[in-house]
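Appendix B. Raw example, untouched.
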Amino acid sequence: MAIAKAERLMNLALCLLGTRRPLSKRELRGSIEAYLEAGSDDAFNRMFERDKDDLRELGLVIETVENLDGDTGYLARRDSNRLPPITLDAEEAAALGLAAKVWQQARLAGAASGALQKLRAAGMPEAEDVYEVHSALEPRIPVHEAAFEPLMLACRDRRPVTFDYRKANAARPEQRQVEPWTLECWRGHWYLAGWDRDRGAERVFRLSRITGRVRSRAGVFTVEVPDVVTVRETVESWAGETATRTARIRLRAGAGYPLRSRAISVRELGDGWDELEIPYGHGLDAWLVEFGPDVVVQEPADLRADVVDRLRAVAKD
């Protein structure tokens, strides 16, 4: 069904762009096979009005012209729908090349490479890649979760989804109905921020905990999507970025370098252990569990209890 609609929109756009005079609805219906197959005039009119609105939403400028007889015609002038030439200086070209490298190991790698090839063919200057020769660091965004692509498309198209999600302290996954807002990469993990319909609140989901297939659902969003900055702050808060207290942990020597990089203080205890004071915010318990036996929480007591509960849930599985 989606392919048929895309083909119908393409045929309508070609007709409107290819004509030198406005075309009436009757002429358009006779030129496009999908419109000929419409069961009635009312069905055709509804289909045509939806398609015309969709093309305008995609950016096509469609003019409505009324002739002397009062008939309405439609056309899309080429000069009104032609993009201006793309000109990039060396710094802008370097920024685009760097952005493409970020997605080199993600599912967007093909699209990013293809876009660069088209820009270079159009005359985009070749920029020196400072990351290729002079640095041992190279920007990458790893994407291994199968849920990434369907969720990315659902965020783009504003489509509700359902999926099975297993919380870190749960033995079994449970189904979630979500209106997806955006995807964020934080500390090497991807998170989905959106509206959880069952709980009636915004939630953040870690993609690696989504099990099974992400399924799209019909219908529209029931809640307005907040601006990007608000969503990003929500992701960071739920993932543990916003710290309100500090915690004291024991960490095995030579382990847990991400924890050490955030530590406020580090003290050697001997016997292969160090004591760290680290910022304590929402989500820290889930992060500490990832380090397994290399971490022992000393205080506060509620954080220690949360970590123990999560470890027990994993052990039961």
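End of appendix B.
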